[in-house]
């Protein structure tokens, strides 16, 4: 597993430096305790900081590194600081303060093992460091941080005394974690913000920082929900529905909460801008909803882990994974043959939603094989990095990779069924549109609508002609033409007749919408390591509209299904744009272990170098090695990376 951690770090370097323009001040190894690349320290101030750092090291048993740069050049401050800490090989008792003077941004990076409560680190940062940075007191901020760490934020109380009782040992020492939790009074998840003043909980947070926290919360908790879904599915296979009913209920409620949060995010993204108060109210509500959903999952973690008890039956677990891996691998040739057949029958556009899925599945299976081998080695090995706990860490990474590979392989077969069904539905859809078109032609006021519908019918016919048709595109064109005609004829038709026509159109519209939502969901779930807020928001909204399309009113349901299709297409487009920025997106697939691990990170199975939306100490990797890059499990987002915090000043 040491080799795994090293290679994940290599991939993290690619994440930070492989795409886009080079950083003006890239993360790098810090040779000195004080590094002033921005030239902001006056003569003698570096020595003053060094003296404070020396006192901290002697009295507080903590080492501090400080770096000033001109700009993080668009990079996330926390990610920049964490990467510099990794390159500098900072340990569990080391802290890094990174300041970008032109960006007016900073971050404090501290390892999970820092012998200081998170609340103290937060207090020192917000009370002593940030105000001095706001006044351009660069040296004073670093000295204040050193003094605060040395005294534990309490004016001279030794740090060691503050640590006693500060670590909770769960399950006989399997987990060691603390977590800072804000005092909050969350509003009911189903109620929209009233547009009044922002809750006092965030009164000292700028609107930009509040927006950043809300966006980060959406991604973090959405990832937690998706990972929990996969873990719950595996547990259900092992133990049955009754044994996991409580976890399923918690997950369903958290999933519903996140759909509500994404609905609010969509409200912020629409073309009706909110005023400053409205924006703050929406961002605050998103944070409250996400926190509630996150906490609900976290409360189930201990019981869920006890249920699975993977460590106690690690040998059987690893053997089962090996059998499952072999079974999924045996499917690849069959799916490959089906894919080649699809390429010979349908256009590139018709297959675009699942293009690349087979290659990604192969990469994931290769990575899963490596993790299974690591798990076997850990079971028979001795010393650090061996034993049942280490085997479970590798085994769970393999399990998630296999699950994602199964999803991708299933998607190819599902696409074939969708295209076959769409082909069968095109004639009936065309007949319905032509019927409406004949009626529209007879009405002089609807001639422009009729002309556009005629063009759509011609385009749909072109999409189904030739040796490589695109029946889904044809069905979509006919559906759009039918919708336009229905809108134009609405005043001329009786309400019952309009409802009947909508009901007739709803079947194939739902097929289109489900197809688009499934393709976007699979793409985002299996590449979530690179997909950002925009795509996730559109997908969540598409899923919400698709749910509403099952309502009793066929006219409203048809509209919701069309909205779901539009949003799902946009989600897939945005997600592909995000993944196209992935450092290895255009490189060869399956070449080497680093690429395979890159697939694990791309799939969100192994966490990258990013920080969470909450400052807080993260859960360790189930007691094994203290690795910060273990695969996710059922629960909330509190399990990744270095802790610390920062923001604007």
TrEMBL record:
In terms of superkingdom, the source organism counts as: Bacteria
Where is composition skewed (Basic residues) in this entry? 640-649
- Per UniProt, residues of the TPM domain are 34-149
Work out whether the entry's keyword set contains Signal: yes
Keyword field contains Signal? yes
Residues in a coiled coil are none
Q: Where is the composition biased (Low complexity)?
A: 627-639
Name the InterPro entries for this protein: TPM_dom
Chain intervals for the UniProt region annotation (Disordered): 612-649
- Swiss-Prot/TrEMBL keywords: Signal
> Which residues are the signal sequence here?
1-24
Protein name per the record:
TPM domain-containing protein
């Amino acid at each position: 597993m040491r080799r795994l951690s090293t290679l994940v770090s290599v991939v993290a370097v690619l994440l930070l430096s492989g795409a886009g323009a080079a950083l003006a001040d890239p993360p790098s190894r810090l040779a000195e305790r004080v590094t002033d690349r921005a030239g902001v320290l006056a003569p003698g101030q570096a020595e003053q900081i060094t003296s404070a750092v020396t006192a901290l090291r002697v009295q507080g048993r903590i080492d501090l590194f400080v770096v000033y740069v001109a700009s993080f050049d668009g990079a996330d401050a926390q990610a920049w600081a964490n990467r510099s800490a990794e390159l500098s090989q900072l340990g569990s008792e080391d802290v890094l303060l990174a300041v970008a003077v032109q960006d007016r941004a900073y971050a404090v990076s501290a390892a999970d093992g820092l012998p200081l409560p998170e609340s103290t680190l937060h207090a020192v940062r917000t009370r002593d460091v940030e105000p001095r940075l706001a006044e351009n007191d660069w040296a004073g901020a670093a000295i204040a941080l050193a003094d605060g760490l040395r005294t534990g934020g309490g004016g001279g109380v030794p740090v060691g005394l503050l640590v006693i009782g500060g670590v909770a040992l769960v399950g006989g020492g399997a987990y060691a974690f603390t977590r800072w939790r804000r005092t909050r009074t969350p509003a009911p998840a189903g109620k929209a913000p009233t547009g009044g003043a922002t809750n006092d909980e965030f009164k000292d947070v700028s609107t930009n920082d509040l927006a950043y926290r809300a966006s980060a919360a959406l991604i973090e908790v959405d990832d937690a929900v998706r990972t929990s879904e996969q873990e719950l599915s595996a547990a259900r296979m092992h133990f049955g529905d009754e044994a996991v009913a409580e976890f399923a209920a918690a997950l369903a409620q958290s999933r519903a909460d996140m759909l509500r949060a994404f609905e609010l995010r969509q409200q912020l993204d629409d073309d009706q801008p909110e005023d400053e108060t409205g924006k703050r109210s929406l961002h605050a509500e998103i944070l409250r909803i996400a926190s509630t959903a996150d906490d609900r999952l976290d409360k189930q973690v201990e019981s869920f882990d006890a249920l699975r008890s993977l460590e106690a039956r690690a040998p059987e677990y690893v053997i089962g994974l090996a059998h499952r891996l072999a079974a999924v691998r045996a499917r690849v040739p069959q799916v490959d043959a089906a894919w080649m057949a699809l390429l010979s029958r349908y256009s590139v556009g018709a297959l675009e939603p699942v293009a690349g899925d087979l290659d990604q599945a192969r990469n994931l299976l290769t990575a899963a094989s490596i993790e299974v081998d690591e798990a076997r080695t850990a079971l028979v090995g001795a010393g650090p990095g061996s034993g049942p706990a280490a085997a479970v860490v590798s085994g769970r990474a393999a399990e998630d990779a296999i699950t994602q590979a199964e999803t991708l392989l299933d998607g190819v077969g599902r696409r074939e069924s969708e295209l076959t069904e769409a082909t069968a539905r095109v004639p009936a859809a065309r007949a319905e549109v032509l019927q409406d078109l004949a009626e529209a032609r007879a009405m002089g006021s609807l001639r422009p609508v009729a002309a556009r519908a005629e063009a759509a019918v011609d385009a749909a016919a072109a999409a189904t002609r030739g040796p490589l048709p695109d029946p889904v595109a044809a069905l979509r064109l006919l559906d759009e033409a039918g919708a336009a005609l229905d809108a134009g004829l609405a005043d001329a038709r009786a309400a019952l007749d309009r409802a009947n026509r909508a009901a007739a159109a709803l079947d194939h519209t739902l097929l289109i919408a489900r197809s688009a939502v499934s393709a976007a969901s699979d793409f985002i779930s299996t590449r979530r390591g690179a997909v950002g807020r925009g795509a996730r928001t559109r997908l969540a909204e598409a899923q919400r509209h698709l749910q509403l399309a099952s309502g009793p009113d066929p006219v409203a349901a048809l509209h919701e299904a069309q909205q779901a299709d539009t949003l799902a297409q946009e989600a897939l487009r945005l997600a592909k744009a995000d993944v196209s920025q992935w450092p290895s997106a255009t490189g060869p697939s399956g070449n080497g272990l680093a690429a395979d691990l890159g697939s694990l990170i791309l799939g969100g199975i192994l966490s990258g170098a990013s920080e969470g939306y909450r400052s807080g100490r993260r859960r360790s990797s189930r007691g094994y090695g203290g690795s910060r890059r273990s695969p996710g499990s059922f629960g909330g987002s509190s399990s990744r990376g270095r802790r610390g915090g920062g923001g604007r000043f």
